[in-house]
């Protein structure tokens, strides 16, 4: 199962007033060590009970502690410091609680617009059940994966507007679902726009809208998704805060034979991040903490999900 709330190093959106992709040429980056608690209630969680007795039952809760060393690195070059190659999770993604490890290249135009091309090799990787709907028998696991490609245009048309486009193909290695309307291999199309609204020199809001279309082999697995979210960022001396609230509506295309009903999901999510710079007066070291909550409410009980995250760690910038 791919964790939707993931332990990550905390960083915040870079000011749009920055003239280059980095202050100096050469290598830069960060590395962190995080420890946390994760709780998940999902019938697709392969860490929970492998046997279910009914498709009408709610998922059992599974709790675990996680220790995660993570980081990112970039190399900036060019006479105007307008070229950069990087690997890791971008700062803007981290601040709103999104996992997106990337290998990418950025190019900054003379206008200040930044073109960001990336490949996401792990975002779809994970473990799932071969047949999540099998009852009365122990379900077996299989791998899922795929390829994802992303184009971000930052400071597009306006210094505060960003556009995020992505395409992915999802592949379940051994999908033994007997209901062909629920086959999970899919092509995924993603578009997101966000706009930064400065409130003061140390605070800003960022509303965003995301549209996703999943074209799956099974018609009952194909959907249109609409997400609205609002993020608030605040900087006070060494303290940095980010809070994001979002709501996602998924409208599926057809009823499955298994449930004889067209699935309709609504998900509420909350994510908060905190950073204390130069902790213990150590230069370049930060104390970081993340907290997250997600609740997916479906008209089909089998798809109801809840998740919680709480973590704390140390981050080092270089």
Description:
It is a single chain. This protein has 318 residues and is mostly beta strands. The protein has one helix at residues 91-95; strands spanning 26-41, 61-77, 83-89, 101-108, 114-120, 126-129, 141-154, 161-172, 186-195, 197-200, 203-216, 223-236, 239-255, 262-277, 285-298, 305-317. A 14-stranded antiparallel β-barrel has the order 1-2-3-4-5-7-8-9-11-12-13-14-15-16. A hairpin with a 2-residue loop joins strand 10 and strand 11 (203-216). 29% of the residues are buried. Residues 1-18 have low confidence and may be disordered.
Number of domains: 1
Low-confidence stretches: 1-18
Main beta sheet: strand number and arrangement? 14 strands, antiparallel, barrel
- Average pLDDT reading: 89
CATH architecture: Beta Barrel
SSE string, helices as H and strands as E: EEEHEEEEEEEEEEEEE
- Shape, principal axes of CA atoms: globular
What quaternary form is this? Answer: single chain
Rg calc: 21 Å
Structural class of the secondary structure composition?
Answer: mainly beta
End-to-end Cα distance, whole Å, is: 33 Å
Proportion of residues in β-strands: over 45%
Number of strands: 16
